[in-house]
Give the backbone structure.
Amino acid sequence: MSDLEVGAVVAERTIHLTRESLVRYAGASGDFNPIHYRDDVAARVGLPGVLAHGMLTMGLAVETIVEWLGDSGRILEYGVRFTRPVVVDAEGGADVTVAAKIGALDDETVRVDLTVSHGETVVLGKAQVRVRRAA
């Protein structure tokens, strides 16, 4: 990690979500809000469709840098702003794209900025991970 520079892309990936992904996450998290799996409920409350759980999106985003880090225990802090929902189509699902770029460096830590989007829409704002530099 000594050769890092601000602006360098350290990881990228695209995650395909399906309705099954949402149901599995609901079971794991205990968040069974029907806006995450029922079109009729989502429509009734004025949503554009069934939405991916925000915490699922957040978790998938940070997981993108784990291989690069080599040890998820180096993550010191992680925060995002939920800016737009990820609508998961019943048949086509939804793709969430994550790009991780070095945002700032100091002697002990690295700030990684995540750009998380669905189509052309950024869905997590100010998504930043502060990690401890490798020993």
